[in-house]
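User: I'm putting together notes for a lab meeting next week and I want to include a structural view of one of the chains we've been expressing. I don't have a solved structure, so I'd like a prediction I can at least talk through. The sequence is below, exactly as it appears in our construct file.
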Amino acid sequence: MDKHSHRLAVSGDMPALTCLMNAAIGGLLPQFLPPDQVAASYAVMGLDTQLIADRTYFVIEIDGAIVGCGGWSRRATLFGGNHTAGRDARLLDPKTEPARVRAMYTSPAFTRRGVGRRILELCEEAARGEGFRAVELGATMGGKPLYESYGFLPVELMQVPTPGGVAVPILRMRKEL
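Assistant: Thanks for the context. Below is the predicted structure for the 177-residue chain, given as structure tokens.
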């Protein structure tokens, strides 16, 4: 496993995060989805700057380069970027609702090196620290194997419509803390 460090993302990271996210979508999803769904995925995935503003979004670095990112949220939105329809900034009740794990991406050159697991650990620790008893996420088909191996269970398979008319599969998954 590579020696990596983590920190909270800042607004100055946004260009690098956008590049990383686009590389992950284009480089990793084709193993799991046909080309039309990969192309449509850009409409339902991406950077949600609310996570950076809330200070709940992490970057993972190796030798000073951002190789992964992801975070958690105390807000109701399950997945998506600034441009995704249906966002909901309502604050969740930690006693009755699960926190959200959001916008996890790993550089295609750094998969299977503990980057995603480290982000999940950081998210769970922070959510637990704010009194949440469970976490949920919207998994891409590419992320599903990681989340299953980390103890998340499937809740609901959603077919998310996109402006281009192609639906993208997103699996709502949950883990008790």
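A couple of points you could mention at the meeting. Residues 5-176 form a domain with the Aminopeptidase fold (CATH 3.40.630.30). Strands lie at 5-8, 57-62, 65-73, 99-106, 134-139, 153-160, 168-176.

User: Perfect, that's what I needed.
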